[in-house]
Write a structure and sequence with these properties.
Elements: H1 5-20, H2 24-34, H3 40-55, H4 57-64, H5 77-92, H6 98-112, H7 117-131, H8 144-152, H9 156-166, H10 168-177, E1 184-188, H11 195-204, E2 209-211, E3 218-221, H12 231-234, E4 238-240, H13 243-251, E5 259-262, H14 269-277, E6 283-288, H15 291-304, E7 309-313, E8 327-333, H16 348-351, H17 354-372, E9 375-385, H18 394-403, E10 407-409, E11 425-428, E12 438-445
Parallel strand pairs: 5-6, 5-8, 6-7, 8-9
Antiparallel strand pairs: 1-3, 1-4, 2-3, 9-12, 10-12, 11-12
Length: 448
């Protein structure tokens, strides 16, 4: 590391994420834990540098390539990491002096990049500073997807997909939304406390909150706070969960005394919410294919006091080998491309490929086929994803209804489509509800 430990830490994490495929959140947490001597201010600065640079990688490369003879794709990996980090500070962080961003970038290049790279970095960054007002983008009218991909930092295939679904103007709004800091939501643990009581308890500790209008147990945290240090967290009075995910439990129709199967349950946010709504009466079988992820479910359940949850190591593609048609409610929150939560995962947009959508949709169909076999007559199957693609959402619903005629869409959802009709499935989005992208479909099995 250089003397500037925050920037050095950020450069090392960014390199590991963008060049070696590490997960941003895990890699950053590990790095911060190893540098516990960093001040709170420096830890915050390093975090902003990491997530901001990764999120804006595409836009940064677009700008840098206009001032560098060697384009970013052909640069030494450490050199392009440092240029991205420095350019992010110059273009997106008003509080960082340009001179500091350039000078520290040159120092990082001396330490991490090949010999002679520091001079190249200095020249490119100074050219960027002088020419930032002359950066050219694809023509917005002739090539809207190319323009938004370069300007807002997205793979072009994602933007093209959104344009087909939402149109140009709304797609630009989507691009801007997912580049903003994500809202922080928590769910009151109704097994121990009401939302109103939690709101008051947090207020006494200096935490400002806002109530969700969609999720009766949801509170948005409005000021910066380390939630783990709060007494309310240590007592198990709340769990961090996104608002859109809370909505699923709210509309599920789950009741005390039911038998519930959660097919892909880890880390347990939705599972424990169902336990709360069941008032700890009944049984929930929470499955996952990975043993270490089952431990996350147990940890969350124990903290909240949700004692009706039983974890099970289970492949969702083999449910019929171990279960019959025995559950009142089956939840399949399926593995998906995650394009509805891009704001929460800075690296996610760069880790997905267009071809992944086809593979994921096929896996989701396989999971749906297995999940339906465990629903008892008259029972409910809920299918959900946190993505925006038609292939993983609406088309999977169409496929399911065509292949399993004893199921129909349950029109209990509180929303209607563009025609004003309640069709039994709905896609939450930043454009309408102001939430992350989230798809819900509720199927009801016939009595016979």
């Amino acid at each position: 590391m250089t003397k500037d430990r925050a920037r050095s830490l950020a450069a090392e994490v960014i390199y590991q994420v963008l060049e070696e495929g590490a997960f941003a959140n895990l890699c950053l947490d590990k790095a911060l834990f190893a540098c516990r001597e960093l001040s709170v201010r420096d830890r915050g600065f390093a975090t902003e540098l990491v997530y901001g640079t990764i999120r804006q990688k595409g836009a940064l490369d677009w700008c840098l390539d206009q001032f560098a003879k060697t384009k970013t794709a052909k640069m030494d990996p450490w050199l392009r990491t440092i240029l991205r980090l420095s350019a992010y500070q110059m273009l997106y962080l008003d509080k960082v002096p340009v001179s500091a961003a350039i000078n520290e970038g040159v120092e990082l290049a001396k330490h991490y990049a090949p010999k002679g790279a520091a001079g190249f970095a200095n020249a490119v960054l100074r050219a960027l500073d002088q020419g930032r007002g002359k950066i050219k983008y694809p023509d917005k009218g002739k090539n809207p997807a190319g323009f938004m991909a370069a300007k807002y930092s997205y793979p072009q295939w994602i933007v093209e997909g959104w344009i087909k679904i939402y149109g140009r103007k709304n797609t630009e709004k989507m691009c801007a939304y997912f580049n903003e800091p994500s809202k922080l939501w928590i769910r009151a643990n109704s097994l121990k406390i009401t939302r109103e009581e939690l709101k008051e308890e947090l207020s006494e500790q200096g935490v400002e909150t806002r109530e969700s209008i969609y999720a009766p147990l949801g509170l948005e945290i409005l000021n910066e706070v380390n939630l783990r240090t709060l007494t309310a967290f240590q007592k198990g009075h709340f769990l961090v969960q996104d608002e859109s995910s809370m909505i699923l439990g709210t509309v599920s129709g789950v009741r005390p005394g039911m038998r519930v199967l959660d097919v892909c349950a880890a880390p347990g946010g939705k599972t424990t919410h169902l336990a709360q709504l069941m008032e700890n009466r009944g049984e929930i079988i929470a499955c996952d294919i990975h043993e270490h992820r089952l431990e996350l479910i147990k940890e969350n359940a124990d903290k909240l006091g949700a004692n009706i949850i039983r974890t099970r190591l289970q492949d969702g593609c083999e449910l019929s080998k171990n279960f019959g048609a025995e559950f009142d409610l089956v939840l399949l929150d399926a593995p998906c491309s995650g394009l509805g939560v891009l704001g929460r995962r800075a690296d996610l947009r760069w880790n997905k490929r267009r071809g992944d959508i086809v593979e994921l949709a096929a896996l989701q169909k396989e999971l749906l086929a297995q999940a339906q076999s465990t629903v008892k007559p008259g029972g409910t199957l809920i299918y959900s994803t946190c993505t925006t693609t038609v292939e993983e959402d609406e088309k999977n619903v169409e496929w399911f209804l065509e292949n399993y005629e004893d199921f129909t869409l349950d029109k209990r959802l509180p929303w209607t489509d563009e025609t004003g009709e309640n069709v039994g499935s709905y896609k939450l989005s930043p454009l309408k509800e102001g939430t992350d992208g989230f798809f819900i479909a509720i199927f009801k099995r016939g009595e016979n």
